Amino acid sequence: MTVSTILNPATEVPIAEIPATDEAGVDAAIQKAATAFESWRAVAPGDRARIMRRFAAVLDDHQEELAWLEVANAGHTIGNARWEAGNVRDVVEYYAGAPERLFGRQIPVPGGVDITFREPLGVVGVIVPWNFPMPIAGWGFAPALAAGNTVVLKPAELTPLTALRIGELALEAGLPEGVLTVVPGKGSVVGQRFVTHPAVRKVVFTGSTEVGKGIMRGCADQVKNLTLELGGKNANIVFADADLEKAAAAAPGGVFDNSGQDCCSRSRLLVQSSIYDDFMAQLEDAVQSFTVADPGSDSAEMGPLISSDHRDAVAAYVAAGEVAFTGSAPDGPGFWFPPTVITPSSISARDFREEIFGPVLSVVRFETEEEAVRIANDTAYGLSGSVFTENLDRAMRVSRAVEAGNISVNSHASVRYWTPFGGYKQSGLGRELGPDAVAAFTEEKNVFLATSE
Ligand code: TAP
């Protein structure tokens, strides 16, 4: 059996050995989930809701444990990791409200009565990347379970520890065996089998656009339901009429949070020419005071990158770009990389076009609002973006004009579990979170009952 050695990315010290599931093991997990589906779908809505609320309570009791596990496995700062564990709890709690409110409709038709039902799909396969192991798992499994589906969940090979623990906590909370099964292993084996196994009726994939396209092609064979959350190259547009101090103070967090390993990272900064020099001076101060340190310390704003290979990939972009200034990072063991600001020679430079997924910010200037929107939209991606301005008309105009699923005005926050999240263009397909996520884990059935005159 293949075993993955899990490293702490801040120290490079091995912290666990996790067996990789082979294809027979994946098939057994899917079969178990298919069997559990028959009884889980039949659990009365109020009881399903109660079990999910209990699951949220158990997650709450273990928030601190889960957070420290993520610090060790993914190098997330403890502040972020606490938020992430709390987010899984909140998302489970939020969708615990859904089973009792999974309404159909009564539609007026001639000759009878017409009603619709929301029925669960069956087994749902959730494939999770390494950058946000806990929240992204929860965004898939919580609404899926609420709708009456069962879930097989594949964490990334590099970061399986919190998902495996959440699987144990689900059982402790009273979810029946087979309702939520965590299946660690390789994407090419476990993830691929979710795509090809006919009992898996929907795949929820979060990861790179390249792998996502392959999964979409694979799902086509069985016309399988699919949600894709893919990459991003998001623009932060700072207008001359913005509160510059606020915009400069917020920019580092918008791109360097989670070491830039964030599909919503505002990795393209567009600054209006008339304030460019002033803004860059303020940005330099903000970047240099951004604290990159032991992720377990309360003051850390950024930890290491996830792996040595990933650090090499990020470094290659920086070596090819024009570095304007950098922050600092610890020396010694750990996959550290300093926050780095690049001024690309043109908007066709690689660092300005490709998702780097590291702490690298590329800054360009623009003259007019139209030009800012044109540059922001000149990308295959469309996940998120920010607009900094004090002019409400401009804020609304630009928010509507940028082709992205999530825009923030005078803020970089993109994720709230109450609101829909997802991408335009090659950033994805479908939406997660928000009030409609449960519907994406159902088939809508229409029933017509003929009535006699
Ligand atoms: P990927 O390499 O695409 O991996 C994502 C997941 O897919 C991992 O669990 C991976 O498994 C699995 N996988 C790999 N090959 C597969 C295959 N052929 N069939 C099925 N599953 C397969 O991405 P990553 O490097 O982990 O994550 C970074 C990317 O995710 C970035 O592009 C980022 O923008 C994107 N991302 C998007 C979002 C949203 S919400 N849009 C959120 C976070 C991240 P193993 O790695 O374990 O082999």
UniProtKB/TrEMBL annotation:
Which segments constitute the Aldehyde dehydrogenase domain? 6-447
The record's section on InterPro entries has: Ald_DH/histidinol_DH, Ald_DH_C, Ald_DH_CS_GLU, Ald_DH_N, Aldehyde_DH_dom
Active site positions: 229
Q: Which UniProt keywords apply?
A: Oxidoreductase
Q: Which SUPFAM superfamilies match?
A: ALDH-like (SSF53720)
Keyword Oxidoreductase assigned = yes
UniProt-recorded Gene Ontology molecular function terms: oxidoreductase activity, acting on the aldehyde or oxo group of donors, NAD or NADP as acceptor
In terms of superkingdom, the source organism counts as: Bacteria
Protein family according to the UniProt entry: Belongs to the aldehyde dehydrogenase family.
- The protein here is known as Aldehyde dehydrogenase family protein
Origin organism is: Candidatus Nesterenkonia stercoripullorum
